[in-house]
Amino acid sequence: MRLKLLPSVLILAAGCAAAPPVQSHFIHTANLFPADGFITQRAVFSTHGRQFPLNGYLAVSETGGKRLVITENFGHILADVLVKPGGKVFVMQSSRAFSPKDIRLGVAADLQCVFGDATNLNCPVEMPDANHFIIKRHGYSLDLRIVEVKPGAQPASLFDESKAERQ
Fold first, then answer.
1. Which has the closest alpha carbon to 24: 134, 143, 146?
2. Fewer beta carbons below 10 Å: N end or C end of the chain?
3. What is the per-residue DSSP string for 4-26?
């Protein structure tokens, strides 16, 4: 009787073989976006069981860095951060939703994961399809979608750290 069940067990076991692991990190986006340009984003920020829709406006400059402004749906600025090419972070504007510390440690890190030079080891990013990124960190997740990319040089004033909040 046991020998009759053996082929069925082997077929079931073969069908239950482990699927290949899902790549939890992605290849850098260096070739996906222009070195100089303006990128409009929509995101859902999830934390503690709550979700918050956000808008993001990212200006990138090959020589000046990355300037990200995060707003809520009615246009109120929640975070404004400048990341210079060397990785130095300047908090241009914070809010009650995102403190300067949250911006430096979270927003800037996520910005560098998707658009910068951070290593895959530091970036818990998945890329389900083109222009869609999911970042999962301890305490929050961010579902980010790129809405529009406009290539072209951005005003140098966007990358001027002299107007940053006191560090």
1. 134
2. N
3. HHHHHHHHHHHHTPPPPPP--S-
Contact 145, 43 (CB under 8 A): yes
pLDDT tens digits for range 17-65: 443 334 444 555 556 789 999 999 999 999 999 999 999 999 999 898 9
Question: Among 111, 63, 113, 114, which Cα is nearest to 85's?
Answer: 63
Tokens representing 2? Answer: 């046991």
- Reduced to 3 states (helix: H, G, I; strand: E, B; else coil), residue 120 is helix
DSSP-derived letter for residue 104 is I
Residue with tokens 């707003």: 71
- Between CA 151 and CA 35 the distance in angstroms is 8
104 conformational bin, left if phi > 0, alpha if psi -120 to 50, beta if neither: alpha
Q: CA 9, CA 13: separation in Å to the nearest integer?
A: 6
